[in-house]
Amino acid sequence: MNPTGIIHAIQDNIARVIKGKPQVIEMSIVALLARGHLLLEDVPGVGKTTLAHSLARSLDCSFKRIQFTSDLLPSDIVGVSIFNRQKQAFEFMPGPIFANIVLADEINRTTPKTQSSLLEAMSEAQISFDNKTYPLNQPFMVIATQNPAEYHGTFPLPESQLDRFLMRLRIGYPSPEEEKKVLDRPQLLHPAEELQPLLATHDVLLLQDQVDHVLMEESITDYLLAIVQRTRHSDLLSLGVSTRGALALSRAAKALSLVRGRTYCLPDDIKELAPIVLSHRIMVARTQGLRQRSCEQAERIIQDLVDSIPVPV
Amino acid sequence: MPFDQALRFASIWLASTSFIGLTLGAGLPEWLAALTGAALILALLRNAGGKSMGRLATYTLMSTTGWNLLVIVGFLGFWVDMLWVSGELLPAGVHFLMILMIIKLFNLKLRRDYLHLYAISLVAILASGSLTTDLWYLPIFLLYLVVGVWTLLLFQLTKHPEEPRILTMSVAMRPQPLASVSQVTPQFFWLANGLALATFGLTLVIFFTIPRVGAGFYQKGFGENIRTSGFSETVNLGEIGPIKRDPSVVMRVELSDSLPQQAGRLYLRGVAFDQYDGKAWTNRLNYRRAVSEDAAGTFVLRSSRSLTTPRLGDTIRQNILLEPLDTPVLFAAPFIERISGKFPSVQSDLTGSVYLPFPSSSRIEYSVLSRSNSLLPEDLGAEPGVYPESVIRHFLQIPSQPKRIAVLAKEITHTQRTIYDKATAIHSFLTHNFRYSLDAPLAEQDQPLEEFLFTRKTGYCEHYATAMVIMLRTIGIPARLVTGFLATEWNEYGNYYVVRQQDAHAWVEVHLPHSGWITMDPTPPSIESIGSGSPAWHALGRMLDTIRLQWGRFFVQYSAADQLAVVRELRAGSTSARNKAFDSISTLFSPFMAMFGGMADYVSKGTIQSLAEVLVPTLIGLAVLLWLGIRRPWVKGMISKKTTRDEQVIMQLYGRMIGHLDRKGIAKLTATPPLEFVRLTQERWSSAGSAVASITELYCRSRFGQIPPTREELSLAEDHLRDLMTLEKP
Questions:
Q1: Which of B156, B171, B204 is the last residue of a domain?
Q2: Chain A residue with minimal CA distance to B641?
Q3: Which residue of B has its CA nearest to A268?
Q4: Domain annotation covers residue B433
């Protein structure tokens, strides 16, 4: 199996639905291959759900969508035990989390209790219910969306929980030309429905294994750690990147190298990924104004930090 | 320690090792040994010492022409040496080799100088190997092997030190951290030593398995023959005494079929004497005749069929390893029936002693079947037997002694009826009433025997034996004095008796009418010969002796026949001896063994069947370790730290490209990663884009992907760079 060809095919496949956002598509595949979860943070109506849907459709794997509301309960995600009269015993009915790709729409709309039940599943890749442990499907990827524009009636995820997401992406508005293409498309059915699956779940797992074999030269690891160190000592930030963040950046860089058809990482990979992998793991200091939750600001700070760190030659 | 310095050190050590080997083996002339030693120390100091030391060392250097002249002079000296001084090729060659080594040690500048030094060392260690067969060669050879592996590894790893490594990068770029590149890490240390060990294992396998042909050109004996006394035709009374303190090993005796006699004594008969003149014993029956050989190459002295009476004595089968002695006597337990070994002919005299035609100059191995005469019941009976005429003629001779001895003998034996009882009475008289002492200066006495019997009452084996023989003869019983060795020292590690010079002994053979010659030893067990020192120390000595024996047997004298024997033994899998050895080692080193308890258990349980079974898993294990190690990051790091030539070329190309673009106004900032810089260049100078992209791609692959570029790719990249240089920036 030629990983590069397959990955390009998937990218092209998704690009038929999501117009003009090749970078976002690439990064979502990186998140998948790095065994990470994706947080899409953008205004409504730019294709967050469609992206998740297209990704799931391109892979031959199960897809579930959970619309998070304020009255959603953990059992609505994880599943419930129902008394079975014939067997005279409780029976576990798996919830929507038992899928390969789970779209958690508007994750900040539900209560922290429900949020944490999802996040637990994300980090452990298993569910504990009634003293029993149920492993989740593999590959398992959560694509969560949240709306930064509207704060009314939301429960913002704390940084410690945001840390569980490999990367935070913004999709942004498409350019007028691309938007025109979207409008020109026949609206008979959901655009993602017409996509054909290209990759079996088994192959996804194989690709994920290949990511582990990508070579990260020692000097690049040093470069990565220099970036992480800098976030911890920066005056602009009140909370730096954790070790989990460094690990995430390393995994993401390896996955990106694979996606770009290389067997080794380059400093470019680190530099490109740093804003989207690290920006949701930091806290901007209050001296930088009160727009703390602004994605753009955090990404810009990381970008500036990275721009001041010498790359290995 | 940096690789370069480590290489210099290892090279000088290599030379030193071969020098030590030569000095120990060949006996270089003192001035040459001192000169070479001084040169080696100076070379070491030049590396280790500070600046002042280095200056001192370089100060003594002369010009290249001078050195070349010296080589020519040395070569002429070699001819003079060979033709007139030493008169032989090998010593002269060795001397010339040392002079070459001295010259090279002062001229270690280029890498090929080091190679020359290695070649000289190799020849030197080979020469020392052909000059010696001693055990010390083993540690020297091992040391040489270890240092050699180190040197070769380091030599490979510092392959291109003369080429520039630092690239000419733009000012803005950080210099590469190359200082940490070539250090001797602990991993390297273990890798090098592991490799040396593996090499040694392989050497052993090759040594033992590859069939060998021929022998060395300069095969020497085992040095001087050991001087013995008591085995010539005439032996003065008191001659054996002085050698009783000499611990040098004379022979080793393996008993092939009988059980090891742990506390037992084994008499190894040498020569018998019939005439005593009051001071010295003489063997008048020394007419030697050649012993006939049977079809199997065995020399048969007396076949059981030829005997008139059936002899029922015990047989002892022995394998004897005789060191080179100054006597042609072949020692064995009494009485030799058959003897076989690697000698063309064997002679025997009328007393049953066996000789080689002339003393052997090298260690000889022979096996003997001996059968002692058993005491027949007829001799215990009352009626006296009749002696043959020949026995009476030779073995009743008495010197003109005063009557006191005869009176004493009668006194002791007058109550006894049979010959055997009389002999026993004299035997017990001597054993119980006299004291064994080595301090008896009886040799100077006029009448040593009387002095011993009536005055001093102390003496050693010769006195006892002489006294008994003379006393027996005075009462008409034929007897003779026998010299030989009394083996008491059982080596449990190698399952053999060690016979030393100090085990030289004299005893008595009494002739009984029916049974024939019976061995009797009137000497009481010596008290002082037990020796001092702790048992552990003795055990260690015995173990060392075993090792020395095995060294001699398996390495020095290893022949095709031995090869077959080894293979046969490996197949038979004789574990008992090894178990014993391991048990003894574990008791000896019990404190240490406690540390490696599990290991010791494993070993002493005898799970190890044979040498091959140890070697093969060891080698496989080492190979697996190495293979795993290569996949481990640290080894990978170690290997990758050695930048290959091609990698350096592409890095230089990249550096030149960056420098060129910098001059054209496209500066690479420190924080700009390579691909981003390509995009930047493409934006600002699109025509250069493709060349920059291709060189950068190759650079990234080599630098971060550790995939070295091929020659074609390199030449292509060079072309691109040339194009780039000629390109005009708009």
A1: B156
A2: A218
A3: B673
A4: yes
Distances (CA, A) of A16 to A53, A145, A186, A200, B564: 13, 21, 13, 20, 79
Topology annotation, domain A1-212: Rossmann fold (3.40.50)
Return d(Cα A233, Cα A235) in angstroms, integer: 7
Nearest CB to A268 within list B169, B176, B676: B676
CB contact under 8 A, B703 and A310: no
Residue A56, pLDDT > 60, answer yes
Distance CA B627, CA B563 (A): 32
CB-based contact, B400 to chain A, within 8 Å: no
Provide the residue type at A165 as one letter: F
Cβ of B673 and A268 within 8 Å? Answer: yes
Q: Where are the domains of chain A?
A: 1-212, 213-313
Are B259 and B152 contained in the same domain?
A: no
Q: What is the mean pLDDT of chain B?
A: 74
Q: Which of B156, B176, B196 is where one domain is finished? A: B156
Q: How would residue A253 be classed by pLDDT, with cut points 50, 70 and 90?
A: very high
Of B229 and B53, which is predicted with more confidence? B229
Rounded to an integer, what distance in angstroms lies between the CA atom of residue B603 and that of residue B609? 10
Domain count, chain B: 3
Q: Same domain for B248 and B382?
A: yes
Domain A213-313: assigned CATH number = 1.10.8.80
Domain that residue B446 falls in: 234-530
Say if B568 falls within a structural domain.
no
Q: A218 to chain B nearest CA, in Å?
A: 9
With 0.90 as the threshold, say if the pTM is over it: no
Which residues, including other chains, have CB under 8 Å from residue B157's CB and lie 6 or more apart? Answer: B3, B182, B642
Q: Are A132 and A93 in contact (CB under 8 A)?
A: no
Confidence of residue B424 (pLDDT cuts 50, 70, 90): confident
Q: Is B142 in the same domain as B243?
A: no
- Predicted confidence at residue A252, as pLDDT, reads 93
Please check whether residues B327 and B424 belong to one and the same domain.
Answer: yes
Whether residue B140 is found in the same domain as residue B39: yes
Question: How crowded is residue A152: how many other Cβ atoms within 10 Å of its Cβ?
Answer: 4
B371 part of a folded domain? yes
Q: CA separation (Å) from B8 to B1, B5, B100, B117?
A: 11, 5, 18, 11
Mutate which of B166, B704, B706, B707 to disrupt the A interface (most A C-beta within 10 Å)? B704
Query: Does B354 share its domain with B481?
Result: yes
Nearest to A41 by CA among A220, A141, A127, A165: A165
Residues of chain A positioned with their CB less than 8 A from the CB of B706 = 215, 217, 264
B637 vs A218, A306, A311: nearest CB? A218
**CATH number of the domain encompassing residue B502:** 3.10.620.30
Q: Are residues B334 and B473 in the same domain?
A: yes
How far is residue A310's CA from residue B42's CA, in Å, rounded to a whole number? Answer: 47
Q: What is the pLDDT of residue A256?
A: 92
B567 in any annotated domain:
no
Chain A residues with CB inside 8 Å of B174's CB?
Answer: 310, 312-313
Alpha carbon of A118: minimum distance to chain B alpha carbons (Å): 37
Which pLDDT belongs to residue B188? 78
Q: Give one DSSP letter per residue of B361-387, joined into a string.
A: SS-EEEEEEEEPPPPPHHHHSSS----
Which B residues 159-188 touch A at CB under 8 Å? 169, 173-174, 176
Contact flag B673-A310 (C-beta cutoff 8 Å) = no
Nearest to B704 among A266, A271, A309 (CB): A266
